[in-house]
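<given_protein>
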Amino acid sequence: RPGGRMARAEPPAATFERRVLRSAAEYHYLRVRLELPDGGARPSVAQFKQLVVSALRELHGEVGAALPVDVLTYEEKTLSAILRVISSGLVKLWSALTLLGFYQNRRCAFRVLQTSPFLLALSGNSRELVL
């Protein structure tokens, strides 16, 4: 040992690990509204579901149309629904609904009002709260 000193071990350099946690939820829920500006015939729940499937097929082909989407609630009066989709298919469903422009040769538009991995989060909307 030169100089009679003990070699001092350097403390290990601090290491940082970045972790991104994806939602572990199996499903995502979307509150959507179909807008039909001319006020014609309103789709039944079966026609609404078929419209969602055809939107997926139009944008993503047969693979998109096979995406499991459930209509949990549907109000024919307001054309509002809560949809359930597996989390891995959320972007496919959302994009297909956004790009749909026609229902029975009439202009239409889907509006995604809320989305959450928790169904309970869609039970109330603070933006529609009446005090």
